[in-house]
Amino acid sequence: MTTISEFMQHSHRQCDELYAAAEEAVANQDWDTATVGWRAFTSEFNTHITEREEGLLFPALEAANGPPGPIAVMRGEHEQMRALVAQMNEALAARDQPRFLGLGETLMMLTQQHNMKEENILYPIMDQCIANEADNLQRS
Amino acid sequence: MRMQGLSLETIPPIHIPFRFFNTAPWMGVLAALVLLFDAGGAFSSQWSPELLAVTHLLTLGFMAMVMLGAMFQLVPVISGRMIPGGAIVATGVHLLLSIGVLLLVAGFYWKAYWLFAWALPVLLTAFAMFLLALGSLLLRQIGGGDAIYSIRFAALSLLITIGLGVLRSANYAGLMEPLALANIANIHLAWGLVGWVLLLVMGASYQVIPMFHVTPSYPVSLARALPAVVFLSLLLLSVVDHTVVQALVVFVLCTVAIVYAIYTIGLLNQRKRKIPDNTARFWRLSLVCLIASALLLAGFYFAGHLLSSIAIQQQLPVIVGILMIYGFAGSVIMGMLQKIVPFLAYLHLQRSCLSNFELLKTLPHMGEIIPESRSRWQFRIHLSALLVLLAVLITGGFVGPAALLLVADFAWLGYTLASATRLYRNTAVRIALTP
Hints:
The complex is a heterodimer. Chain A contains five helices and no strands. Chain A is mostly helical. Chain A has a single domain, classed as nmb1532 protein domain like (Four Helix Bundle (Hemerythrin (Met), subunit A)), CATH 1.20.120. In chain A, helix 1 (about 5-25) packs antiparallel against helix 2 (about 30-65) and helix 3 (about 70-95) packs antiparallel against helix 4. Chain A is elongated and about 45 Å long. By secondary structure, chain B is mainly α. Chain B has 14 helices and no strands. In chain B, helix 3 (about 85-110) runs antiparallel to helix 4. The N and C termini of chain B lie far apart (about 45 Å). The interface of A and B includes residues 23, 105 and 112 of A.
């Protein structure tokens, strides 16, 4: 059976790949591919942070007396990422390549250090405390 | 799972890393100026006082300055704990390190070895403060995985390097009888360049290569074996004075360096993001320099006696030193600063206005804090300076152009970082004034 860690780490890698494809298209000024690719990324991004984490895993962990501090910090970082994604939506619509890539660099660095904390600390705690949620994840 | 006191939001105030980062390039400029005005005398021998002045400006003034600043930033973030003493310790370490380096270098340059009696206590206090503050974090059971594992060995190596440096300089200053151990300077060099620098770069790369460049991670077994082997080999080199052991250690260290470099280049080639990236360029250059210095060192050690020319025999260690210090460590540092500085600036600005989306939209993004074109020029200047410097050493040509390129390289970095800091400050003031 797939654990929460395995499932969510795989989802992180998927987001990375989708992001890299969209970014490459923007770098090549291929705006049609970029728009499709960016939509694919934002959809996976929203499913991951809004539905799976904030909608399912975080509340379950809190109900199981999980650590409140780190969860609050993760929520805060999600807000920071959402703000960047919203700005990148605008940059893409305006076909502002330097702005999109500059914001994207920032989003990537923020995301990677965020993922590392989740993968090293938060997901292993989830595997211990709320292992049964793994089934719900796969059904989501 | 240890959760007590663990915070995922330990970000030190920005002035801590930035004061170190903004000082370091100007120490590099000073090193380049010493070369320029000395016009080649420095390269006459690996141990000429002028070259020792240049070396210590680069290793302590530039490298250690950035690395200490980065560790004050990195260790709290990856371990999830604040450094005890925080801003006061960091400010003190920065001030003492700056003064200590200048005193030490002045002592070398003007052969005023009595200055060491002042430089030593100042530098010792700086490093003691740093190691005590950080050591208390590093010795505790903290997170951080492979990066912290390697950084621990790096910190220990720094301690040993300093200890040996103190013995040497006390000897210079006439405070102490010369030690029987004749190759103490070589061991100091090995601990400094291989123990502290290589292990710290390794530890940092375990964290930042997958993170900045979106590559696969290093396998845990390799990530842990490499620093442990390096550290144990250096210990063996220091305590056993036997030619067979020495040969074995040189072979092992060169192999580890090459394995690490090739593996890391392989990781970089697998990066998912395909857009051109200046930091990745700096990493590749630096790893190529590491391979080159390992091959040259091994060649010199095992086949140096075959070289007929005494001149080449004297130049080779200097070339290896330049490849390690300026080519390997210098390139990594320059490349990482191109990303770390704009990221930190953006992160701190974003946090100060997260609830105000209209204000958020007016923040300069990373590409504005350090423009891509400026990083690209940094790489070009750095690569030219390195190549011209190596050419001067190999051909015995005039050192002037190489020294000028070195001045340009470090001054360009200093200007880039100062502009980024100014943009950060102006924006922070603008945010504070917005109702």
